[in-house]
């Protein structure tokens, strides 16, 4: 089998679609949760940064959905808005609410959780993007180079927040430690490829789960060392695996809100 | 029978020089280095653009403005405008004229050079002083940062450097 035949094999295409859905759905939900901070972040600079990062991340999701469209999976907008929860492949971490209450009523969101989730997620995304730059599927590899440049600023931003709050008051530290526990409880599927692990890895679409987990730990180790903390342990077996369509009720509620306007008139050109 | 007119790429580039960034009306998409390729076949034109930032909401407007500007030419038939991710847009694609016109708009152009540790420095867009502080790496649009000049006491914006070396 030459390399061209391999690229065209149905197994290869199916594995590529699955990985792209995981990447797209992750960024889609992450940016949605980030956008819920609009007007609520601790100060205006944080608000601006969070909005920009959410906007960039939504652009990354849109780009992955476009790559899926190119593979004939469906129209990008429909992929983003019309799929029900059990068809979604985002990690549980990205779908979790920002805290108690609703955006339009009395949101009591947890900024410590937002900082820890964003920092750990962005660092994980960086590890994946670095690996995707070497992907056997060229369109993904090329797009990853573009995403990596934008991610540089996201990572810098969240790492600064993380370090500063971890070096702040006792109350801040307590909140951050609680947030780390919550985030790590959901971290089990972040580096999982679910049922598609074997085909995704053997087709060299991205590095192995084990390799990326190792890279993630190594990449945050210097920050944790400076803070005199142990690097958090990634759970081996996630309670729910988003990659296999297992989700919490948080996702159902988010999808209703997210798609409300789109579903008013799906054929409208906005 | 209508005579088939061959549209020159030079003419297309001339038109594209008047397609401005919708948020910075002093710089064109050519100044920004967004135009990757122009091809013509008879009176059909194809323009390939590079997105600056992937989530930039101005991209669709730029695409539409590009199409409309070209369609105004009587000799132009079908127009196709596509965005591609490769090669990636980097801030060193901004031309010298782009640098000058960004400054006119009150935006410091991205630095040409990075320090060895990856850090970078820009001078005040208004007075040129190097005595500036970074207020926020994120600004009113994804591609800009907010800085403060301690010499002339102005807040100014700078275009973020974007490089594959990052």
UniProtKB/TrEMBL annotation, chain A:
Gene3D superfamilies: 1.20.1260.10. GO terms for biological process: phenylacetate catabolic process. It comes from the Bacteria. GO terms for cellular component: cytosol. This is Phenylacetate-CoA oxygenase subunit PaaI. It comes from Paenisporosarcina antarctica. The gene is paaI.
TrEMBL record, chain B:
SUPFAM superfamilies: Fe-S cluster assembly (FSCA) domain-like. Residues 109-160 form the PaaD zinc beta ribbon domain. This is Phenylacetate-CoA oxygenase subunit PaaJ. InterPro entries: Fe-S_Maturation_MIP18, FSCA_dom_sf, MIP18-like, PaaD-like, Zn_ribbon_PaaD. Residues 12-81 form the MIP18 family-like domain. It comes from Paenisporosarcina antarctica.
């Amino acid at each position: 089998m030459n390399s061209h035949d391999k690229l065209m094999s149905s197994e290869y295409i199916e594995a590529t679609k699955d990985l792209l859905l995981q990447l797209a759905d992750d960024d889609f939900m992450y940016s949605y949760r980030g956008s819920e901070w609009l007007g609520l972040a601790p100060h205006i600079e944080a608000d601006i940064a969070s909005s920009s990062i959410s906007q960039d991340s939504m652009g990354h999701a849109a780009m992955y959905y476009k790559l899926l469209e190119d593979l004939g999976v469906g129209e990008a907008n429909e992929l983003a808005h019309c799929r029900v929860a059990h068809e979604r492949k985002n990690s549980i971490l990205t779908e979790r609410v920002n805290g108690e209450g609703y955006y339009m009523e009395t949101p009591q969101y947890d900024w410590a959780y937002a900082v820890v989730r964003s920092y750990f997620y962005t660092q994980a995304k960086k590890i994946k993007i670095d690996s995707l730059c070497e992907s056997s599927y060229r369109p993904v590899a090329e797009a990853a180079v573009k995403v990596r440049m934008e991610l540089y600023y996201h990572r810098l931003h969240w790492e600064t927040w993380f370090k500063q709050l971890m070096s702040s008051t006792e109350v801040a530290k307590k909140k951050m430690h609680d947030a780390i526990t919550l985030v790590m409880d959901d971290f089990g599927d972040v580096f999982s490829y679910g049922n598609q692990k074997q085909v995704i890895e053997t087709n060299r679409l991205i590095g192995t789960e084990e390799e990326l987990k190792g890279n993630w730990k190594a990449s945050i180790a210097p920050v944790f060392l400076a803070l005199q903390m142990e690097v958090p342990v990634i759970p081996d077996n996630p309670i729910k695996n988003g990659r296999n369509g297992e989700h919490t009720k948080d996702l159902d509620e988010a999808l209703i809100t997210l798609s409300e306007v789109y579903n008013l008139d799906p054929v409208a050109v906005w | 029978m209508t005579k088939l007119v061959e549209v020159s790429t030079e003419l297309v580039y001339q038109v594209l020089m008047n397609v401005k960034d919708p948020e910075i009306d002093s710089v064109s998409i050519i100044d920004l280095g967004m135009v990757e390729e122009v091809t013509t076949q008879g009176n059909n034109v194809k323009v390939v653009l590079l997105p600056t930032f992937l989530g930039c909401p101005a991209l669709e407007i730029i695409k539409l403005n590009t199409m409309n500007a070209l369609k105004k030419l009587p000799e132009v038939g079908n127009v196709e405008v596509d965005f591609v991710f490769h090669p990636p847009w980097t801030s060193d694609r901004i031309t010298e004229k782009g640098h000058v016109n960004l400054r006119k708009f009150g935006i410091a152009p991205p630095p040409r050079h990075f320090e060895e540790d990856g850090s970078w420095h820009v001078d005040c867009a208004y007075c040129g002083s190097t005595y500036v502080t970074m207020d926020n790496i994120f600004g009113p649009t994804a591609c800009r940062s907010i800085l403060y000049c301690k010499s002339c006491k102005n807040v100014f914006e700078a275009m973020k450097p974007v490089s594959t070396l990052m």
